[in-house]
Design a protein that fits this description.
This protein is α/β, with parallel strands linked by helices. The protein has 5 helices and 5 strands, in the order βαβαβαβαβα. It has a 5-stranded parallel beta sheet with strand order 2-1-3-4-5, with helices on both faces. It is globular. It comes from Paenibacillus contaminans.
């Protein structure tokens, strides 16, 4: 039996972490961090299958965390989805330019976010398998 895929939630609001755990915790192993730097270090340590990342945090903001993740060889292929109350076009553009695969503004549709998470993980797995076959 295949083990559960893991999702790292980096958000400084425990309520948001608990909400995501309630929404997707039965399908995925949930890891979390409440500060940007702590989240970056957790990503390096655990190499999750996907990261849900808040933009506004007290130490490193989400944009900087994402940029660092995308520069590091161990984490550059991990899909990052920004989840934020910032819903202006410029905010989304900034998140995507930092390297995120998606940007979802709060409030969000639960069915939609579950599908996006599933699809991004499946796509990452397909790419990983394709890269493995090419290297062989």
């Amino acid at each position: 039996m295949e083990s559960k895929k893991s999702i790292l939630i980096i958000d400084d609001t425990y309520t948001n972490i608990e909400l995501f755990h309630a929404i997707i915790g039965d399908q995925y192993e949930i890891l979390f961090a409440t500060k940007g730097l702590e989240g970056y270090e957790a990503a390096l340590r655990h190499l999750p299958d996907l990261i849900l990342l808040d933009v506004m945090m007290p130490d490193l903001d989400g944009y900087e965390v994402c940029r660092r993740l995308k520069k590091h060889p161990s984490t550059k292929a991990i899909p990052v989805i920004f989840i934020s109350v910032l819903d202006h076009e410029e905010d989304e553009e900034k998140g995507l330019e930092a390297g995120a695969i998606d940007y979802i503004a709060k409030p969000f549709n639960v069915t939609s976010i579950k599908a996006k998470i599933r699809n991004h993980i499946l796509f990452k797995d397909m790419l990983t398998k394709a890269e493995y076959r090419i290297e062989q």
